[in-house]
Design a protein that fits this description.
alpha/beta, 8-stranded parallel beta barrel, 3-stranded antiparallel sheet
Length: 339
Amino acid sequence: MKKIGFLSFGHWSPSPQSGTRSGADALLQSIDLAVAAEELGADGAYYRVHHFARQLASPFPLLAAAGAKTKRIELGTAVIDMRYENPLYMAEDAGAADLIAGGRLQLGISRGSPEQVIDGWRYFGYVPEEGKSDADMARRHSEIFLDLLRGEGFAQPNPRPMFPNPPGLLRLEPFSAGLRERIWWGAATDATAVWAAKLGMNLQSSTLKFDESGEPLHVQQAKQIRAYRAAWKEAGHTREPRVSVSRSIFALVNDMDRAYFGGSEGQDHFGYIEPEKRAVFGRSYAAEPEKLVEQLKEDEAIAEADTLLLTVPNQLGVDYNAHVIESILKHVAPALGWR
């Protein structure tokens, strides 16, 4: 059994060919797709966060709105770029959104990917400490955020407050119990996966990772997941961790599917997402359901993960993306034992 959700980047474009032509379209359609996915029996609605781009950016208003319109489905991110975040304000936003959703948030955070502008986090007011990198800054913001989610008081109360205070040091409010265990780290390397395990975060692995062996993505990801689970066990955490992988998977069940994705390439690619950092980019899966089942059986990383996130082409509209999700749930997942 696997949890199956979707992952949307929330692209929008004013082009007449796009079904998502504005920021408003991207946000409202993202909520509608979460509602549709829940009705279909999917387990998760996840959203990417990119700044300075015609994509989804500020996640918490969206997560809160989707939480208010749904009842069961998990709502998450993959991922929030922690270089841009004030961890204290983020803890308040996350707590509020999680309470609105009834404790269904699954927040993926990370160092983030290359952005649309140079050092965009500087425009948000953040600069790494002397001798530290932007990645170090992201991890430090993350550690502060995780500590805040424990709900322990840390701020000295005013002796003459406007409103009565509970005894002792004060914490940020609203506080949502349990959210600390629903934080995920998006890891591009084996080392950061191990670091995430030590801190008690769940693991997200994307459709790309930095190349560490020259092997196909699914093989490298499977090794990454095994290293993560070993580090988790060594750290002595008492709960079972969760692991997700993202994939572009399309079951070709009608002429529209074949027109859109029938010519998709079925192989990994190697390239450079950052200077001097070679990455492996995962293949897209697009085939008739029976063939798709056989292809997916060979994906070692999917086999290792408990959660699969289907990357969706959001500019094709809510109805078509709901069809993409339903096709996997109906024609592929049962044959693989995922349902």
